Amino acid sequence: MRTLIVDDTFTSRRLLQMILAPYGESDVAENGVEAVDAFTHALASKEPYDLVCLDIMMPEMDGQEALKAIRQAEKGAGIASENQAKIIMISALDSPNAVIEAYYRGGCTSYLVKPIDKNKLLGLLR
User: Fold this and answer.
1) In the 8-state DSSP scheme, what is residue 105?
2) Cα separations in angstroms, 54 against 14, 18, 62, 78
3) Other C-beta atoms within 10 Å of 36: how many?
4) 23: which DSSP letter?
5) Can you tell me whether residue 85 is helix, strand or coil?
6) Taking the model in full, what pTM does it have?
7) What is the three-class DSSP state of 110?
8) Sign of CA pseudo-dihedral 60, 105, 56, 17
9) How many CB atoms are located within 10 Å of the residue 43 CB?
């Protein structure tokens, strides 16, 4: 499994890397701009990500904007919705509005609230 971990906090990125290490390689990005750049580069290289773990509150471009840009890039590349990357939004925001925005307007696959629960994350992957 090829994963892109996007979070502006080093400890959150590192924790996700450790949890996901047994399942394949992962790349990291510190904000939404870097995430979209990495994602589009991977698509162009024909080595797309299978999973994106995407924080919501980040500088430069937040996770909601990055999610929309990633889905647009997939659409532009002609990727059918059933073949799109799985995107798990991860945030300290436990508000219904944030969840609605991520699922219905952005197209995320799942939503986890920080602190990250390893068992919940692995359950989503199964």
Assistant:
1) I
2) 13, 16, 9, 22
3) 21
4) G
5) coil
6) 0.91
7) strand
8) negative
9) 18
Q: What share of the chain is helix, strand, coil (3-state, %, to 5)?
A: 50, 20, 30
pLDDT tens string for the chain (126 positions)? Answer: 999 999 999 999 999 999 999 999 999 999 999 999 999 999 999 999 999 999 988 999 999 999 999 999 999 999 998 999 999 998 887 666 766 666 666 688 888 888 889 999 999 888
Alpha helices in 1-126 (DSSP H): 10-20, 32-44, 63-76, 96-100, 118-125
Cβ atoms 71, 49 nearer than 8 A: no
Residue with tokens 């068992």: 119
CA distance linking residue 9 with residue 14, whole number of Å: 9
DSSP annotation of 103 reads I
Task: Record the tokens describing residue 1, joined without a space.
Answer: 């499994």
d(CA 7, CA 119): 20
Our CA angle for 119, 94, 6, nearest 5°, is: 65
